[in-house]
Amino acid sequence: MSAPTQFELIVFITTLVILALAYSLVFTWNWPLKNGPGFFLGVEVPAGFYEGPGRSWLKGYRAMLVALYLILAAFFGACFAFGRSDLAPLCGFWALLYTATILAFSAWTRHKLGRNPPVRPVAVALETRRLGDYISWPMEALMVVVIALCWWLELHHASHKEWLNMLTMTWLALGLLPGKILLARSSYPLPVDRTEEHYRYQDAMRRNSVRMWNSIAWFFVIVLAGVALRDTWTPARTVPGLRWLLLSVPLVVWAYVIVQAFRRMRLATTLGRDLLPPGSWTTPFRRAPWIGVGENCGLWGNRHYLIWFAIWFGGILAIILYSQFR
Amino acid sequence: MFLTLQANDKRPLYQQITDGIKALIAGGNLSEGVALPSVRQVAGDLGVNLNTVAAAYRQLQDEGFVTVRHGAGAVIASRTSRPVDGAELYQPLRTALTQLVLSGLSGREIEETVRQELALLQQKGDAR
Fold it and tell me: What is the mean pLDDT of chain B?
């Protein structure tokens, strides 16, 4: 068995990415209607909305989705048509464009359709939630130990030190912990009708999100371990079987992340189908949380979350910029 | 177990939380030894200041319903309040009855209302 060439690997990963994105497109096609015809993207709309202005809103949403996917298709097409498949990994930046566009559309929807959400009574769960219910501290400690071990290997045994890659992966993995804590603490008001169901739904979404973020953190740790092994252990560079293994393990973990993401979307549509969307109403004490598409914990309306995200993402950008211009 | 807060309630928020928890204790939904969520959690869920929830918990502690231990949080301590003198105990009842009389209800209707409210409270406890 020979080691995969870079081209073969890129084609393989691109195929997986395209399949996942195609599934995602199918899934998000009717996302504005996921809470029934009384809502559009989590904003309460009057009866008959979809016979009137709702049609153009839905058309606009779908046109936006198609435009986003066409941009990506054009990018992949250009990469392969001009023989620059090495640029295909840059499609990661499309995820940023996608997220920003979807959030902007969601904000526009809220601004135009849901500026004055109805005020409703609110229920508070008197059930104690602890961080330990969501975050496994032994697993977090294990992650730190693995990262420390990788750094020790790289610093003491590597002939060619790739500390910038190591730093990026470490920042990405460990930097997710504050985000996970904020996620575990996140909540939104519970309505008085079917409170128990809303609470269980909220909890299920929270757990699922933390699990997904854990998988993402472990993906970065495994990539880090792969870099450390490749730099310090000669067979990892020369034995094809080992090279395959080092490449396939992160791919499997990444596939698991994608599966978790789809499970989360499925959970949101099946469990939350008949429930009141969190961003559709306000309490006497708290504004309706701003909920982006596919996001069910109201994190984008949380100031602490925004600060954490700015620091985490800013750190990645700083490392990338430093590596390019040093 | 959920504490419900109405949109049009004129009482201060900390009072609504206090009264709501007391009603759950009276109905038997919160029994002795049950831990209440942290002040931070309740404040975060409601989207209100920490001090508001802390004031409610402090009042419950002062009245003997809750004990607050550092690190352990608030725990339901008793289903009965600390002994209070008659005037303090009956004053809210008197105010409520005055309100009912002024709203035009007859003595019989008021008696019926009180009986119904009491039955509702006991029913909640039995349904637990």
Answer: 85
Q: How far apart are CA B123 and CA B28, in angstroms?
A: 9
Reply yes or no on whether the pLDDT at B128 is more than 50.
no
pLDDT (0 to 100) of residue B79: 72
Question: Mean pLDDT, to the nearest integer, of A92-104?
Answer: 87
The token pair that represents A249 in the structure block: 């393990």
Beta-bridge mates of residue A39 = A44
Please give the structure tokens belonging to residue A278. Answer: 């969190």
Mean pLDDT for B119-128 is: 65
Give the C-alpha separation, A43 to A57, whole Å.
Answer: 12
Using the beta-carbon criterion (under 8 Å), do A128 and B24 form an inter-chain contact? no
With both helix axes pointing from N to C terminus, report the angle between B13-26 and B107-127 in degrees, rounded to the nearest 10: 70
Burial tier of B46 (Cβ tally within 10 Å: 0-12, 13-18, 19+): buried
User: What is the value of pTM for the model shown?
Assistant: 0.81
Crossing angle of helices A163-174 and A176-185, in 10° steps, is: 10
Residue B10, min C-alpha distance to chain A (Å): 11
Q: Would you say A192 and A123 are in contact if contact means Cβ atoms under 8 Å apart?
A: yes
| Closest Cβ opposite residue B37 in set A120, A127, A190 | A127
Give contacts of A128 with chain B, Cβ < 8 Å: 35-38, 41, 73
Q: Which residues in chain A are contacts of B42 at CB distance < 8 A?
A: 124
Q: Which one of B1, B47, B73 has the shortest CB-CB distance to A286?
A: B47
**B5: nearest CB among A121, A125, A185:** A121
Higher pLDDT, A304 or A221: A221
Average pLDDT over every residue of A144-160? 90
pLDDT of residue A242 exceeding 50, the answer is yes
Q: At residue A128, does pLDDT exceed 80?
A: yes
CB atoms within 10 A of CB A322: 11
- Tell me the HSE value of A10 on the side-chain side, using a 13 A CA sphere: 15
Three-state SS string over A242-302 comes to HHHHHHHHHHHHHHHHHHHHHHHHHHHHHHCCCCCCHHHCECCCCCCCCCCCCCCCCHHHC
Tens-digit pLDDT profile for residues B67-106: 988 777 899 987 776 666 667 777 888 888 888 888 888 8
CB distance A190–B45 less than 8 Å?
Answer: yes
Secondary structure of residue A214 in the 3-state scheme: helix
B30 interfaces chain A, CB cutoff of 8 Å:
yes
